[in-house]
Task: inverse folding
C-alpha cells in the first residue's frame, strides 16, 4: 500500500475518502490476505445501529499479522520484550517464533475446550505470553476479553460474567516496579462467583505460591508441551467478533465494546502506517498496557499487520528510576515512541537529571494518547525528549473507535501544541450544539460527533445492543457521539477539551463517576456520595468525592482509609479518590438531581462564581461544602 507522504497527498486522499468511502476502503483492504473476498464494502444505518464492513469476506487476522510475513520476514524481530527488572534477561521473538508460539497456544486453547465464538478472559501482566494469548484466541476464532491486571476481583468477576467467559488465562503473579502482585489469587477470588469458567490456564511468571484447583487449573508450560505446533487459521466472517473490551461510561457498569475482524484489521493498520510513518527496519515502542485499547490496537494488531518491530515493556515508567523509558529507548534504538501525557508529566516532575544520561538520538517520531496533553507537557516532551526534531502526534481516539481518528500524520501535518489537528482520511468529524445542530465554520466549539462510519467503529455493546444505541447513536440522531467536547480553531484544527459526560480520565484511565460512587456507597456508613473530577498536575484529572456519613462517631481519617479500601476492592487502586470530603448534604435541585457543576467548581478551588444556584433545594448545603473544601 502506498502510504501518504505529503500534506497535498493527505488532502487528496481525504477528499477521495469522503467522495467515495467504499472505493477508498476497498482499495485499502485489497492488500490483505482474504480467504474469500467481500461481497459488499459497507452497509450501515446509525439509527439501529447496524454497521457492516466487507460483509461476506472471510479472513483470519492472525494470517495477516503473522503467516503473510513469513516468506520475507521469518527472522525479523516482532517483539523485543523488556522485563520489569532491568537485570532480568530480555526476550526477543521473531515473526517465525511468534507464529509458532501462537499456533501452539491456539491448540492449548482448543485442547481446553475453547471453540470459535467462545469468550476467553485474559488477565495477565505485560509478558510476551499476553500478546500470544490474544493472537491465539484470534487464530481459532475465540473472542478475547482482556481485563487490565490492575482491576480487582470484583471488577474481574463482573466482566467474566457479563460475557460468559469459558476460560481464563492468567499468571501466578505480576511484577510492577518494586512490587510483586499475586494475580492468580485475584482470579481465584473472582471465580468464586463465576461458575461458567471451566478452565484456568496459569503461566508461571513470578514463582509465587498459588492455590490450585484440581480439574480447573492447568499450567501454561505443561499444556504447551503437549500441544501440536500446527494450527490452521479459522476462517472468520469479516463481521465475526474479534474481541470485547470493557470500558466505563457515564452510567452503571462498564460496557463490553465489541470489535469485529475485517474492519478493525483494515483501519488499525491504515492508521498505524499513516500516523506513525513507520519505516521498514525501524523500532517502534508503545508503552501502553495491552489491558487497554491502545495496547490491543497499537502493540498487538496494527504493528504486526504492518510487519513492524516493536518493543514490549513489562514495567512502569519510574522503576528502577525515572530514567527507565529513556534507557530503554537507547537500548533498542527506538525510532517511534508512543506514550501517555500522565507519564510525560510524572517524568517531567522528576527533573532533567534522569533524561541527561541518555542520547535519545534514535528517536524520529513521538506520540501521545489517552487524554488531552497540556501545552507545558507537550513542550517538555518536544524539547527534552524529541530535542526539537521529532514531530509529536497527539492521537485522539477511543475504545469505541478501535483506532486513531484525529491526529497529525508524523512529519506531514504541521503540529500545534495540544491539538490533535486533523481527521484521518475516512473520518468525518462534526461539532454540534446541545440540540444537535451542526456548528459550521472555524473558531468554534461544541460536542464532537462523527457522521459517517469508519471500518473500526464499535459494532455493539456485548449482550445489550440497545445500550450501544442509547449511549452513542441516540443523543444526536444520525451521528456517532463521542462524549468529548472539542474546539475547531481558525485553521480548522481540532483540539479535544475533555469529556462532556460523567466520565473521568485519571492518568489516562477511563472511569465513570457512577462506578466510583457505587463503590464508595458499599461502605456501611455512607448513605450517599457524589464524585467529580478536578485538574491534577500529574494525573490530568484527580477524583474528588463528597460523602454523607451516618456514623457520627467515625473519625474522618479512619473513614477515608476505609473508603479507599472499599474502592480498591470494588474497582481497583486506580479508582481511589484523591480527596474525600464529608458533608451533611449534597447540592440538589428540587427534583432531586445532584448539581455536579457546583461540586466541580468547589473541587477546582472556586468558591465565588458557582453559577446559578437559584434552583437549589437547600442553599445552606453549598456554604458548608465551600467551608469544608479540601485544598
Ligand atoms: C485511546 C483511549 C477515550 C477518551 C476520549 C478522550 C480521551 C484519548 C486523547 C483524549 C484528548 C487525546 N481510549 N482521549 N486520547 N483526549 N486528546 N489525544 O484513550 O476509551 O480509554 O479513552 O480519552 O476523552 O473520549 S479510551
Result:
Amino acid at each position: 500500500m502506498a502510504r501518504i507522504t505529503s500534506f497535498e497527498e493527505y488532502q487528496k486522499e481525504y477528499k477521495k475518502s469522503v467522495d467515495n468511502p467504499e472505493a477508498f476502503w476497498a482499495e485499502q483492504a485489497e492488500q490483505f490476505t482474504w480467504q474469500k473476498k467481500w461481497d459488499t464494502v459497507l452497509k450501515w444505518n446509525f439509527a439501529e445501529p447496524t454497521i457492516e464492513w466487507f460483509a461476506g469476506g472471510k479472513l483470519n487476522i492472525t494470517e495477516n499479522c503473522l503467516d503473510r510475513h513469513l516468506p520475507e520476514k521469518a527472522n525479523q524481530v516482532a517483539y523485543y520484550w523488556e522485563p520489569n527488572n532491568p537485570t532480568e534477561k530480555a526476550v526477543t521473538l521473531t515473526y517465525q517464533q511468534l507464529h509458532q508460539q501462537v499456533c501452539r497456544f491456539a491448540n492449548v486453547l482448543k485442547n481446553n475446550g475453547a471453540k470459535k465464538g467462545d469468550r476467553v478472559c485474559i488477565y495477565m501482566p505485560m509478558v510476551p505470553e499476553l500478546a500470544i494469548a490474544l493472537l491465539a484466541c484470534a487464530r481459532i476464532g475465540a473472542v478475547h476479553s482482556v481485563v487490565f491486571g490492575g482491576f480487582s476481583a470484583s471488577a474481574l468477576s463482573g466482566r467474566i460474567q457479563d460475557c460468559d467467559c469459558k476460560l481464563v488465562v492468567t499468571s501466578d503473579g505480576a511484577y510492577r516496579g518494586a512490587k510483586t502482585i499475586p494475580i492468580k489469587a485475584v482470579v481465584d477470588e473472582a471465580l468464586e462467583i463465576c461458575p461458567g469458567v471451566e478452565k484456568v490456564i496459569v503461566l508461571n511468571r513470578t514463582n509465587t505460591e498459588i492455590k490450585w484447583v484440581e480439574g480447573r487449573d492447568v499450567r501454561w508450560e505443561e499444556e504447551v508441551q503437549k500441544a501440536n505446533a500446527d494450527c490452521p487459521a479459522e476462517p472468520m466472517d469479516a463481521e465475526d467478533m474479534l474481541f470485547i473490551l470493557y470500558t466505563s461510561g457515564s452510567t452503571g457498569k462498564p460496557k463490553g465494546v465489541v470489535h469485529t475482524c475485517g474492519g478493525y484489521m483494515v483501519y488499525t493498520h491504515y492508521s498505524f502506517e499513516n500516523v506513525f510513518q513507520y519505516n521498514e527496519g525501524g523500532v517502534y515502542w508503545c508503552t501502553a498496557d495491552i489491558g487497554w485499547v491502545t495496547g490491543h490496537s497499537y502493540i498487538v494488531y496494527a504493528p504486526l499487520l504492518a510487519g513492524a518491530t516493536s518493543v514490549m515493556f513489562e514495567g512502569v515508567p519510574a522503576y528502577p528510576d525515572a530514567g527507565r523509558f529513556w534507557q530503554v529507548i537507547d537500548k533498542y534504538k527506538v525510532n517511534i515512541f508512543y506514550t501517555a501525557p500522565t507519564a510525560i508529566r510524572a517524568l517531567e516532575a522528576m527533573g532533567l537529571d534522569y533524561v541527561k544520561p541518555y542520547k535519545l538520538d534514535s528517536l524520529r517520531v513521538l506520540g501521545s494518547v489517552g487524554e488531552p496533553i497540556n501545552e507545558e507537557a507537550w513542550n517538555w516532551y518536544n524539547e527534552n525528549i524529541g530535542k526539537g526534531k521529532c514531530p509529536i502526534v497527539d492521537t485522539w481516539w477511543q475504545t469505541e473507535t478501535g483506532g486513531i481518528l484525529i491526529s497529525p500524520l508524523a512529519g506531514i501535518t504541521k503540529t500545534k501544541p495540544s491539538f490533535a489537528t486533523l481527521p484521518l482520511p475516512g473520518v468525518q468529524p462534526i461539532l454540534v450544539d446541545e440540540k444537535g445542530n451542526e456548528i459550521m465554520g472555524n473558531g468554534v466549539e461544541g460536542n464532537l460527533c462523527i457522521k459517517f462510519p469508519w471500518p473500526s467503529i464499535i459494532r455493539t455493546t456485548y449482550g445489550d445492543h440497545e445500550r450501544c444505541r442509547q449511549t452513542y447513536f441516540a443523543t444526536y440522531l444520525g451521528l456517532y457521539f463521542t462524549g468529548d467536547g472539542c474546539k475547531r480553531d481558525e485553521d480548522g484544527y481540532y483540539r479535544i477539551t475533555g469529556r462532556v459526560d460523567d466520565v473521568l480520565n485519571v492518568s489516562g484511565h477511563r472511569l465513570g463517576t457512577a462506578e466510583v460512587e457505587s463503590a464508595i456507597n458499599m461502605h456501611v456508613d455512607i448513605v450517599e456520595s457524589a464524585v467529580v473530577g478536578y485538574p491534577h498536575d500529574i494525573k490530568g484529572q484527580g477524583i474528588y468525592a463528597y460523602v454523607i456519613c451516618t456514623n457520627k462517631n467515625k473519625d474522618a481519617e479512619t473513614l477515608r482509609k476505609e473508603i479507599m479500601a472499599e474502592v480498591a476492592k470494588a474497582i481497583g487502586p486506580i479508582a481511589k479518590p484523591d480527596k474525600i470530603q464529608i458533608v451533611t448534604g449534597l447540592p440538589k435541585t428540587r427534583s432531586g438531581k445532584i448539581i455536579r457543576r457546583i461540586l466541580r467548581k468547589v473541587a477546582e478551588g472556586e468558591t465565588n462564581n458557582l453559577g446559578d444556584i437559584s434552583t437549589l433545594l437547600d442553599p445552606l448545603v453549598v456554604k458548608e461544602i465551600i467551608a469544608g473544601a479540601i485544598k
Q: What stands out?
A: The CA atoms of residues 280 and 308 lie 7 Å apart. The longest strand covers residues 526-536. Residues 506-627 form a domain with the GMP Synthetase; Chain A, domain 3 fold (CATH 3.30.300.30).
